[in-house]
Amino acid sequence: MTDSKIAAITNRIIEKSRATREAYLDKVERGRSNGPARKRLSCGNLAHGFAACGSDDKQALAEGDAPNLGIVSSYNEMLSAHEPYHSYPDRIKKAAHEAGMTAQFAGGVPAMCDGVTQGREGMDLSLFSRDVIAMSTAIALSHDMFDGAICLGICDKIVPGLTIGSLSFGQLPVIFIPAGPMTPGLPNAEKVRVRQLFAEGKVGRKELLEAESASYHSAGTCTFYGTANSNQMLMEIMGLHLPGSSFVNPGTPLRDALTDAAVKQLASITTHGNYTPMAEVVDEKAIVNGMVGLLATGGSTNHAIHLMAMARAAGVIVDWQDLSDLSDAVPLMCRIYPNGLADINRFQAVGGMGYLMRELRDAGILHDDVKTVMGEGGLEPYTKEPFLEDDKLVWRDAPKESLDDGVLRPPQSAFSASGGMKLLTGNLGRCVIKVSAVKPEHRKVKAPAKVFHTQDAVQKAFKAGELDQDFVAVVRFQGPKACGMPELHKLTPPLGVLQDRGYKVALVTDGRMSGASGKVPAAIHLTPEALDKGPIGLVRDGDIVEVDAETGVLHLHVDDAELAKREHQDYDLSESHDVMGRELFAPLRKTVGSAEEGATVFRW
């Protein structure tokens, strides 16, 4: 039975989503086909659609009734997580043929790496790339040749973009196939130590590059629990992956077997089998399950934005209050870096998703009455993990106990009774804060503000010795309308150093910190943003700002009469609007919505 608190929040979401969900499902119904979608095409349309195919596929597409699968991929050689996808299309086509189907590479989507663009001009395109990926997915599937779709994507904006785009084709069964994380590299504690030494000027670029290269060393997803691995958790707990497939390393026989199995499973849920369209998988309860997974694992704060946008693409209205209320009801079961020292491989080894989902399901914290790509059996298949026996893929029950309770625990003895992501409200607006990695003694900060307009300005002040005191760094004009809401990772090392020196420090910003949000309390995604005349634009150096992650308060201690006299400060953003392609995104900056609505250019 579902926990009463979870059930109440879910019912609230269902009620407020009633009209939008009904409109979405009506749109999906209009897109359905009573047979292979390509049968609706004229002879000229169809001839164009299979002109480059081999003769057997041409005949199957022209005369047969077998499903045709569309492959949408984010493959590129520069992203370690996506490089393994280079061989997937041929493997998928072979598996499709073995299942009596055809498959075509429908289209590619862009995939940029936040790890490469951190602190650079390109980072201003990062968040918007999600909506571009959604549109690219729609273009790939718009030929109406397909009866199901396979999405290949891993990292930050790519999976949310693929999800949003695929939901526009919610009449299609859709399965996501992961590529897996790279094997462990330099221990996370050592990586953090070298980064902070570099921030203090105690080691040089050579030493820092050696440490970073030892951390990020091969094909596969980065091993820390940032947005990329949070994405994989999310796809599995929402039922869009095969069970246990999220964190199997690339280039292994098990990884290949899972890819083949995913294609054959998709064959079984097309219109020619146990029809399970994506619109029926991604519903209100699946969205709640996604938020539960995010909270139980201490996942990326980026999903305080992405999940809002993904949900709305399915007609489901969720906001930060829903996320915060769920956080109060969901225990934190994992310690994975940056919320601990273990990497994602360790999580997988000690129990992984099968253990996590079984424990959450048995405790009534996950909705079990959901459809998944495995059909209508609820989440029971996801309480198992895959193995190869005599080269045959089998699933066994997940371990009965965690093999390392310093990494993964049952709900009854969780690391924290709450999920650690909260809504902060007050006279500065609404924002989120992730406290799962913040020690209790650092969760309340009341100190003078130091106002900055860029993360580079914070770094400059740090290097000049101007920040050796208690303070709240207020970094504004970093919202989606201002400059695309870049991640502010440059702030992590200096603020971490200052906290280690014994100062009370916190961050308040209308920008993002992402899945690497760590030990310093960071009130992020503040809305309304500075460019929208949000109250953050009224803050002055020396004002007392209170950040209280325990009570959910963000307050500027300036009386209303004084605030009424102040004018919003302006900031010249022209340097953030050109070079590195940023000028092309001006229409998106003008139309983007608020962070709490998903910071998306789409209007549902």
Automatic annotation (TrEMBL):
Residues binding [4Fe-4S] cluster: 155, 222
SUPFAM superfamilies, A to Z: IlvD/EDD N-terminal domain-like, LeuD/IlvD-like
Pathway connected to this protein: Carbohydrate metabolism; Entner-Doudoroff pathway
Family matches, as Gene3D superfamilies: IlvD/EDD C-terminal domain-like
GO BP annotations, alphabetical order: D-gluconate metabolic process; Entner-Doudoroff pathway through 6-phosphogluconate
Single GO cellular component term: cytosol
Catalytic activity annotation: 6-phospho-D-gluconate = 2-dehydro-3-deoxy-6-phospho-D-gluconate + H2O
Pfam families reported for this sequence: ILV_EDD_C, ILVD_EDD_N
PANTHER family named in the record: D-XYLONATE DEHYDRATASE, PHOSPHOGLUCONATE DEHYDRATASE
Protein family per UniProt: Belongs to the IlvD/Edd family.
Protein name, per record: Phosphogluconate dehydratase
Organism: Gilvimarinus xylanilyticus
Lineage of origin: Bacteria, Pseudomonadati, Pseudomonadota, Gammaproteobacteria, Cellvibrionales
